[in-house]
Amino acid sequence: MFESLPLLPNDPILGLSIAYAKDTNPNKVDLGVGVYKNDAGQTPIMRAVAEAEKQRIVRDTTKAYTPPAGVPGANEVATRLVFGAGHPAVEAGRVRTVQAPGGCGALRVAAELIQRAKPGANLWVSTPTWANHIPLLGSAGLKLREYPYYDYATHSIDFTAMLNTFKEIPRGDLVLLHACCHNPSGADLTPAQWDQVADVLEARGIIPFVDMAYQGFGEGLEEDAYGLRMLSARLPEVIIATSFSKNFGLYRERAAALSLVFANPQQADAGFSQVLNVARAIYSMPPAHGSTIVDIILHSDELTQLWHSELTQMRERIAGLRVQLVDNLSRLQQARDFSFIARERGMFSFLGLTVEQVHKLKNDYSIYMTDTSRISVAGLTVEKMDYVSKAIVSVL
Ligand code: LMR
Q1: How far is the CA of 34 from the centre of ligand 1 (A)?
Q2: Is 37 a catalytic residue?
Q3: What is the C-alpha to C-alpha distance for residues 341 and 344, in angstroms, rounded to an integer?
Q4: Domain segments of the chain: what residues?
Q5: Cβ–Cβ contacts within 10 Å for residue 73, how many?
Q6: Residues 296-341: tens digit of each pLDDT
């Protein structure tokens, strides 16, 4: 039967890491996958994580299954991290959090739950959105529709077009919003724009589904959660997928949480039972290691402080690289304005190059980025900054 399966091309994002690893050019630069790197071009284990791992070995005495929702302490701290202390929806008993195998796992479980509650529901995603949102959420049976978001000409959000589309979306449809550090554009809503979005969603009975994969990489842990916290305080139902891959550097451990805000505690209990049932039908229960690390760190004042300072360093390093890249590019040429890169946040920005220019960067300079010219800014280093800037200018 397998003879019917054709060979597929590599994943447009993950495939870049494979090609990069094979490249023997000593000057190669990986601006592909959204993985944080330090100035040595490495993705180190965070010190808070390494310490929590030591504590975990002492603390854990069994490898027996965790409960279906995952490590209990981790759900408590994840809820606090996502919603902040004393959030009205949490206080009212309207929130349920479960762990999930990575941000993808959280998104997929949410999609399966939506599919149970409203088969074939319309889910509106930004143009553009993270490439993997489409197969990940669409193959659960949801119908994906698009709303305008990033204007490539002005390198900013076309907020008027976005809001006008929201005003036309049928009641009961869902919209997928990026909490912060929009992937792939790096262009985020301001708090005032979030408020306007909430007004429209509330008036029209549209349900927000928020993907928060980069909490702490934009403006800060609290600031980055502004939109989803405000929506959860105002609207009866909100779906939030939170990944710990980036902000705890736990990529391969697949640590994430799915938080659901329900209209009332009774619906929350029913919804929670359904989520566990969805997970049981796919993977039974989530992996424990990464979530245990999050649990240990966020239950320790000392480790939380260390983690905050490491996360702040990562955020500031990326923001600094953005400024340096803009300075370099404007020094080397004046025909094109790249200042938007310094205004954008998180791992990504579009350079605004054609596919041919992207391929030339790869073939002639061993500089890797997606065909859309999305760069993962964290892949730059001070040492490679000049090399990359000159290469970009040479293909313009
Ligand atoms: C990215 O967009 O590069 C990251 O979210 C990693 C991935 O899985 O695509």
Answers
A1: 5
A2: no
A3: 5
A4: 2-45+314-395, 65-299
A5: 15
A6: 999 999 999 999 999 999 999 999 999 999 999 999 999 999 999 9
Position 83: which residue type?
Answer: F
7-53: pLDDT as tens digits: 999 999 999 999 999 999 999 999 999 999 999 999 999 999 999 99
- Judge if the beta carbon of residue 13 lies within 6 A of ligand 1: yes
Q: Which of 37, 158, 224, 246 is catalytic?
A: 246
Which residue, judged by its Cα, is nearest atom 2 of ligand 1?
A: 34
Is the separation of the CB atoms in 291 and 100 below 8 Å? no
Does the annotation count 130 as an active-site position? yes
Report yes or no: 113 and 311 within 8 Å, Cβ to Cβ: no
- Per CATH, the number for 65-299 is 3.40.640.10
> Which residues face 257 on adjacent strands?
99, 242
Rounded to the nearest integer, the mean pLDDT of the chain is 97
pLDDT digits (tens, 9 = 90+) for 105-114: 999 999 999 9
In angstroms, the first-to-last Cα distance of the chain is: 48
pTM: 0.96
Cα gap 89→45, rounded to integer Å? 34
CA distances to 188, 389, 396 from 320, in Å: 18, 15, 24
Domain 2-45+314-395 fold: Aspartate Aminotransferase, domain 1 (3.90.1150)
28, 30, 37, 130: the catalytic one is 130
Q: Whose CA is nearest to atom 1 of ligand 1?
A: 34
Give the Å distance between the CA of 33 and the centre of ligand 1. 5
